[in-house]
Amino acid sequence: MAEKKQSIWAQLKARIAVDSVDENDEKIYKSGGRDFRKPKDAKGTLIRILGYAGKRKSLFALVLVTMLISTVCSLAASYYLRPLIDDYIVPLITSPEKDFSALARQLGILAGIYLASAVATYFTSRTCMTLAQWATNALRRDLFSALQDLPVTFFDEHTHGELMSRFSNDADNVQMCLEQGIVQFLSGIITFVGTVGLMISLSWKLFVITLVTIGLSFALVKGIGKYSRILFKKQQSSLGALNGYIEEMLDGLKVVKAFNYEDRAKQGFEERNDEYRDNAIFANFLGSIIFPTMNAVMNICYAVTAVLGGFMTVAGSFTIGSLGVYLNYIRQVTMPINMMSNQAINLFSAIAGAERIFAIIDHEPEPDEGAVTLVTVDRAEDGSLTETGHGERTGFWAWKIPQSDGTYEFREVRGSVRLENVDFSYVPGKPVLQDFTVWADPGQKIAFVGSTGAGKTTVTNLINRFYEIDSGRILFDGIDVKDIKKAGLRRSLGIVLQDTDLFTGTVMDNIRYGKLDATDEECVAAAKAANAHGFISRLPDGYNTMITGNGQNLSQGQRQLLAIARTAVARHPVMILDEATSSIDTRTEKLIDRGMDALMEGRTVFVIAHRLSTVRNAKAIVVIEHGKIVERGSHEDLLQQQGRYYMLYTGQSELD
C-alpha cells in the first residue's frame, strides 16, 4: 500500500513539473507565439475578464451593491449575538422574573438582518447569472470574430478540436467564474477582513492563536493552488487533443471502416482519453484536498481557543457573549477561506481558459496592407468609369487606385493574372515553388497538370493570398496583389474546390452564398448553367429543400454541382476550378463542361485537373513538376513535343 501511495505522489510530482509538458501541451501552449507553460499574469487576465462584465455597468454595479449588503448583513448578524447574549439572555437566567418581550424584539431585529442578507444574496445570484451570460456571449463573439481575421496558416497549425474547446470548455469555465467564482471570492475577502477586525476587537490575545492558523491556511492555499493551476492547464490541453481526435475520426469514419482501422482508432482514443482522465484526476485531486486540510487545522484552532477562552471567561476578563461570538467567528473565518480556496479552483481553470481564448483574440490578424479596393462602376460611351453608389450593381467592376495627389484612378477589372519569378515555401527551407512564372490574359483558360504535390493547388492559393510568397510578384490587372485589399481581391475570384462545403439552409440559400443579394431568378439561372437545375427540381422541396450535415442527404456529385452554381451566381471575372469535376461521373461531367464553357466565357479561368480530357480546350496547359514549370503550350503543341504531357496523355506515365 505504501508503494502504491509513493507511486501516486511520484506521478503527481511528474505531472506538476513544468518540464514534463508533452508535445501536445507544447503545441497548444505556444499558440500565438506565447509560451503557455510559463506562469501567466493572473491579475491582468482577471481584469480583462472583468472588463467584459463591466460592459453591462448597471448589472455589474447591482452585483457589487447586493453582494456588499449581503456580506455586511451576515457580519452584523453574527456580531449582534454578543449583546443579545450578554444584555438579554444572561440577565434572564439570573432574573427571578422572566420577561421575554425585550428578547423577542431583539430576535425580530436579528431575523430582519438575516432576511435582508438572504434577499441581497438572491439578487446577487440572479444578477450574476445574467451578467455572466452577457459577458460570455461577448467573449465568444470576439473569439469568433478574431478567427475570421486569422491567416490560413493559423488553422494549418491548430486542429478543429483545439479551437472548438475554446468555445466550449474554456468559455464555460469563464462563465462559471463570472457566475460564482469572482463574486464569491470578493465576498470571501470582505467577510474575512470584517471577521478578523471583529475578532481583534473582541480579544487580540485569542486572535494571535487564530492568526497562526490563518497563516498556515494561506500557505496551504498558495502552495497547492500554484500547482493546481499547472495541472488544470494540462487538463485543458489534453481535452483539446481528445476533442480533435474524436472529430478527426468521425469525419473520416468511412475511411476508418474501409481500411479496418477500428482497433487502431479505439487504441488512439483510449490513449488520449486516459491521458485526459489522469490529468483531470490529478488536477481535481490537488484542488479538492485544500478544504479538508484547512478544516482539520481550523478544528484544532477551535479546540485550543475554546479552552483558553473558557479560562478567560471564568477569570472574568471575557464575557460569555464575547466567547460565544468569538468561537462562532472562528467557524466563520474558515468559511471565507474555504470559499476562496474552492473558488480558486474555478478561478485557476477560468484564467487558464481565458488565456487560451485571449491568445487567439490577440493573435496577429492576417496582414492586409493593401489600399486598392474593388468597386462597382458605370461605363460611359467614351469608356470612362465612374464609381456607383453603395450597393448598386451595374455588372462592371473596377480597381479604385489611390494616387499621390489624393485622387483615384479607376482601372477596369479584366482578369489579367501574372506570377513573376515566384518563390514560395510552406516551411522555411523547403521550397514548393521555385522561380515560378506563369500568366493568363483576360478570358484565357489556363490548366495546371502535374503529379500530386507538384504545386498546382499552391499556385491558386497564392493568387488568393491565402499564403504570402517568399519572393517575386503576383500581378492582377497590372497591380501587385499586395497592394489590393484582400476582401476586394477575393471578391473578384470565384473558387470551386475539390472538397465541397455546404451550409445548413435551403438549396437556394447555398447557391446565394456566392452572391448574398442575388435574386431567386439569378440563383436558378446559375443552377441551370451548372446543370444542377435538373436534380434540384427532383428534390422533395426543390430549391427550398433543407441541407443539413454538410449536404449528407445529397450525393458527392450533387454537392459539387451546387458548389459550381454558387460560384456561377457571383459572376467573378476570374475563376479557379480545383478538381471541380473530380467527384462527378463522366456523363455528368460532359453536361457540366457545356455549361461551364458558357459560364467561363469572357473570364480568366485556372483549372487544376487529374482528368486530362477536361483541359484539352485550355488556351495553355502548364505542366508542373517539383514546383517548376517543365512544359507550357496548347494541347496540340504539347502532344507534338512528346514530352511529359504526351506521356501522361497517352498513358505511358501516370499522375501520382
Describe what this molecule looks like in 3D.
It is built from 22 helices and 16 strands. It is of the alpha/beta class. The strands form four sheets. A six-stranded mixed beta sheet has the order 10-13-14-7-15-16, sandwiched between helices. A hairpin with a 5-residue loop joins strand 3 and strand 4. The chain starts with a helix and ends in a 7-residue tail after the last helix. Helix 8 packs antiparallel against helix 13, helix 9 runs antiparallel to helix 11 and helix 12 runs antiparallel to helix 13. The chain is elongated, with a radius of gyration of 35 Å. It has three domains: 339 residues, Up-down Bundle (ABC transporter transmembrane region fold), CATH 1.20.1560; 40 residues, no CATH class; 233 residues, Rossmann fold, CATH 3.40.50.
